[in-house]
Specification:
With about 350 residues, the protein is α/β, with parallel strands linked by helices. The chain is built from eight helices and 13 strands. A three-stranded mixed beta sheet has the order 1-2-3, covered by helices on one side. The chain is elongated, with a radius of gyration of 35 Å. Keywords: Membrane, Transmembrane, Transmembrane helix.
């Protein structure tokens, strides 16, 4: 060892002997800061990887947005709670796929929980105005929306536009099923009536034209619904909730009672509901009737004439007439309202 090196070590030993407590304290602080720095860097890396993977996976889901992420280290890995706005609750299999991607990217076990807040994004500007995927900061993600998800978003917008004026139809949900023969849009609707094959075909053609995709097919899944007020089953909302004065309310009751009596006088016919709503100078009347056969157009005209003759009121009558009866040994009865 040279004299210069010997002098350096001798001087350092002298400093240590003169300031032992300060040297040890500085060493401990340096070690703590180094450990904290490594932990901070690892946390930042984990946070960046988690957000990147979630953005990449959620961008393939329609109208979905990541709102927050909570990371909780465990003894073996990391527990993640990801909050998302989504039009439908995510399937467990979807969560499992995302969890496996996160585990592979982080190199440690991951337990993922998706906190789903169900939302619907509906544009007033039409089906071509599709909202892009937004990340946790509310910014547009660099991950492009897949063609399948774009098709689903556009189809839902078109469907809601088409059903906007259909008071008796409510679109609950829409899903896209990819088959070898092409995409099938399965729409769940609430409606008191079964849609005809002809109407479904017409809507399918309309959808194909609007989306410029002739391969799309449509399937309708009907959820049967009914509404009942204190007055009875609701067919015409205006008949139950409309503003009528005392005189008009009395005429309404007379029309409904007269038509019910005349129909029930026919053998094995049962009036399940009948509503009369004021429409200008006349009355719009709708009814549900079950019987051993259906009412004929001649029957409807005769009923309208009877109201005109006995009450001096003009009515436009339409009846949903079903061949349906409940039969027991005691005889015929009205079937349940469906």
């Amino acid at each position: 060892m040279s004299e210069k090196q010997a002098g350096f070590f001798s001087g350092w030993r002298g400093l240590v002997r003169r300031f032992p407590v300060a040297v040890i304290s500085l060493t401990l602080v340096a070690m703590l800061l180094t450990g904290y720095l490594f932990t901070l860097i690892d946390d930042l890396r984990v946070n960046r990887v988690v957000n990147s993977v979630l953005d990449e996976q959620l961008a393939h889901l329609p109208n979905t947005a990541l709102t927050s992420v909570e990371l909780n280290p465990t003894t073996t890995g990391v527990s993640i709670i990801a909050s998302v706005d989504t039009p439908q609750v995510l399937e467990p299999q979807t969560v499992k796929v995302i969890e496996e991607h996160l585990s592979a990217q982080l190199g440690r076990p991951v337990q993922l929980f998706m906190r789903c807040k169900v939302t619907k994004d509906i544009s007033a500007a039409g089906s071509t105005n599709i909202r892009p995927y937004l990340n946790r900061d509310g910014k547009v993600s660099d991950v492009p929306l897949t063609s399948t998800m774009a098709l689903l978003q556009q189809a839902e917008q078109v469907a809601r536009e088409a059903m906007e004026d259909q008071d008796h139809i409510h679109l609950d949900d829409i899903r896209l099923v990819e088959l070898d023969s092409g995409p099938v849009l399965v729409m769940a609707i609430q409606s008191p009536r079964e849609p005809s094959a002809e109407r479904v075909e017409n809507f399918q053609k309309f959808l194909q034209e609007r989306l410029q995709n002739s391969d799309i097919r449509v399937g309708i899944r009907r959820i049967s619904t009914s509404e009942v007020s204190a007055k009875g089953p609701v067919i015409l909302g205006a008949a139950h909730y409309g503003a009528l004065d005392e005189g008009q309310r009395q005429i309404q009751t007379q029309i409904e009672s007269l038509l019910t009596r005349l129909i029930m006088e026919k053998p094995h016919f049962y009036v399940q509901a009948i509503d009369a709503a004021l429409a200008g100078e006349s009355w719009m009347v709708r009814g549900l009737v079950a019987g051993s056969n259906v009412l004929s157009p001649e029957d409807i005209k005769a009923l309208q004439d009877a109201v005109k003759r006995e009450l001096n009121q003009q009515v436009a009558l339409k009846i949903l007439s079903r061949v349906e009866l409940e039969v027991g040994e005691e005889g015929y009865q009205s079937p349940p309202i469906r």
